[in-house]
């Protein structure tokens, strides 16, 4: 096949034209490093290797970019890279390599994420378990991470904080009270947990 043209595209890609027809798009820096130019001949194996290396490079670059901005679980990172920058296989390989290098650690991510959800967002442990599962954290790891947080202790404290900060009028206004109960259940607290705290506060 003859490389008849190579035209820049968005997102640092270069469109290859082979024998006058549109071919694959590859990473622009990879294309420049290959030193290919219009008129050069490309074999099937050479083209395949170029495309695969381009895919791997884009996966690595995107994964590192994402990790620079915030921590991710392995599954979350893989899915984001596969959705926006590279093939699923390249995204998985990039995540595997970053895990080997210690730049990606599901346990450390789960501990940090759970702490944020409980202490800053005031989620109940039921909701935290759901969020960790959504990020791809295994159930046994999630339970180990959540073990230091006493179910009832953290629930009572967080429910009181949410009520005082967001629903201060819940005792006086029945509508506010209903909204507070619904919101607390969305945050991951059971009706029994909410009723216990609100009943106790109501009688103080």
Brief write-up:
This protein has 204 residues and is mostly helical. It has helices spanning 28-34, 44-69, 74-84, 88-100, 106-120, 125-134, 139-146, 151-166, 174-186, 191-203; strands at 3-9, 13-18, 21-27. The mean pLDDT is 92.
Relevant terms:
204 residues, mainly alpha, 10 helices, elongated
Structure description:
With 204 residues, the chain is mostly helical. 65% of the residues lie in helices and 10% in strands. It is built from ten helices and three strands; from the N terminus they run βββαααααααααα. The protein has helices spanning 28-34, 44-69, 74-84, 88-100, 106-120, 125-134, 139-146, 151-166, 174-186, 191-203; strands at 3-9, 13-18, 21-27. A three-stranded antiparallel sheet has the order 1-2-3. A hairpin with a 2-residue loop joins strand 2 (13-18) and strand 3 (21-27). The longest helix is centred in the first third of the chain and has 26 residues, at 44-69. It is elongated.
Secondary structure blueprint with pairings:
Blueprint: E1 3-9, E2 13-18, E3 21-27, H1 28-34, H2 44-69, H3 74-84, H4 88-100, H5 106-120, H6 125-134, H7 139-146, H8 151-166, H9 174-186, H10 191-203
Antiparallel strand pairs: 1-2, 2-3
Distance between the termini: 83 Å
Largest sheet: 3 strands, antiparallel
Task: Tell me, briefly, the overall form.
Answer: elongated
Radius of gyration: 26 Å
**What is the spatial order of strands in the main beta sheet?**
1-2-3
Amount of beta strand: 5-15%
The counted number of beta strands is 3
Spans of 5+ residues with little confidence (pLDDT < 50)? none
Topology pattern, helix = H, strand = E: EEEHHHHHHHHHH
- Structural class per helix/strand content? mainly alpha
Mean pLDDT: 92
Amount of helix: 55-70%
Work out the helix count: 10
């Amino acid at each position: 096949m003859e490389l008849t043209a190579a035209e820049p595209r968005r997102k640092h890609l270069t469109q290859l034209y082979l024998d006058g027809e549109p071919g694959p798009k590859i990473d622009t820096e990879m294309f420049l490093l290959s030193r290919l130019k219009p008129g050069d001949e490309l074999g099937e194996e050479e083209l395949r290797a170029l495309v695969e290396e381009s895919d791997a490079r884009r996966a690595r670059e995107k994964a590192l970019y994402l990790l620079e901005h915030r921590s991710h679980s392995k599954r979350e990172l893989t899915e984001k890279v596969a959705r926006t920058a590279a093939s699923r296989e390249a995204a998985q390989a990039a995540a595997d390599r970053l895990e080997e290098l210690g730049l990606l650690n599901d346990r450390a991510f789960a501990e940090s994420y759970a702490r944020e959800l409980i202490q800053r967002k005031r989620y109940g442990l039921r909701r935290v378990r759901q969020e960790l599962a959504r990020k791809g954290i295994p159930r046994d790891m999630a339970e180990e991470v959540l073990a230091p947080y006493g179910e009832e202790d953290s629930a009572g404290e967080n429910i009181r904080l949410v009520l005082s900060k967001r629903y201060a009028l819940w005792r006086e206004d029945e509508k506010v009270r209903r909204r507070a109960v619904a919101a607390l259940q969305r945050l991951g607290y059971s009706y029994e947990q909410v009723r216990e705290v609100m009943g106790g506060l109501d009688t103080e």
